[in-house]
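Q: Could you fold this chain for me?
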Amino acid sequence: MFKRTLFTHEHELFRDTVRKFIEREIAPYHAQWEHDGIVPRDLWIKAGEAGMLCCTVPEEYGGLGLDYLFDVVVFEEMARSGFTGPGFLIHCDLVATYVKGFGTEEQKAHWLPKMVSGEAIGSLGMTEPHAGSDLKAIRTRAVRDGDDYIINGQKVFISNGQLCDVLVLATKTDSDSGSKGVTLFLVDTNNPGFKRGKNLEKLGMKAQDTSELFFEDMRVPASCMLGKEGEGFKLMMTKLAQERLAQAIRSATVTETLIEMTVDYTANRKAFGTTIGAFQNTQFKLAELHTESVIGRVFTDHCIAKFMAGELDEVDAAMAKMWLSNLHCKTADECLQLFGGWGYMWEYPISRAFADCRIVKIAGGSIEVMKLIIGRSLFGRVQGHEKVKPIAKSDDADAGQKRLAG
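A: Sure. Below is the predicted structure, expressed as structure tokens.
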């Protein structure tokens, strides 16, 4: 049997702590949160006290200064639990890394300690009604006015949108310059002119707040800019591979969990005088899914190791995201079938997993965009184009800026 080799004894001790936290603080309440469409803010404070938020943030900013695998443990255990309400992944793996990697000393000192403690919840403000995977097509405008920028526009499908205190916001500072006209701001959501729209009702992930956001003459100081004006698209490109890796990590874990769940169910559920697990069709289906899940896990762990070494490029990340997203959805569908009518009942975790899984083919870049990235790399090599560059490793706060400067 395949045995993972990434994690040390310390990582596994932390995993046990995370599992106990989930059992104690999330499992008893998640069904109610699904009805509410949101988790309570005090859960974030408790997660911060347990050391589960932003594990890689250095000690000088209130963090533990741990390696990326501690964040991976949190992502995996949340995925294994099936509880999708807490948006820890976006907060830790994306927003905190933008601040840590591209923020000024003042920005890091102000926001990172609050994000580690759970006092400030982070979100990404990128997707718009007319711009999803094509980020350079955003329309939210930021216009210079003295030492400030005035921002107008809207965002949609924003995870943690109802709760967020800090927002990495993508804007256009030059509408005629395409990708070179994109600028990022680190926005305090208490700013006048910031408005939250309704909490969107989704197919799945019902306990995670997902919102429309509106900006009406919102004035932010130029000091809130992340990086330099016009560098926003470059900054986003350095983080997309990390986001797609996180998606693959989640899908790999959920896929394994659904297979285990289905084996347990079919080993005990009887039909026609025997267990469903005794049927050849059941064994063949699960054998195929298990084999594909092991292949996906091996490649995902390979990508994690490459990321930590600063060697993960956008093509490998795209392949991991595409393979695991497709497998995640396939597994949820085929495993639900083996549960029969009970699989269609919301009280069964397989039913919720089926509803939750569909977003993985869209979030973090659609499957079609992943294919485009992979396809271009194949034909680019044939035509002698420049090879894709690796993404900066997660624990080097200056790596992304150094690459931009170079």
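A (continued): The beta strands are 122-125, 141-145, 148-159, 166-172, 182-188, 194-199, 210-221, 225-226, 270-271, 274-275.
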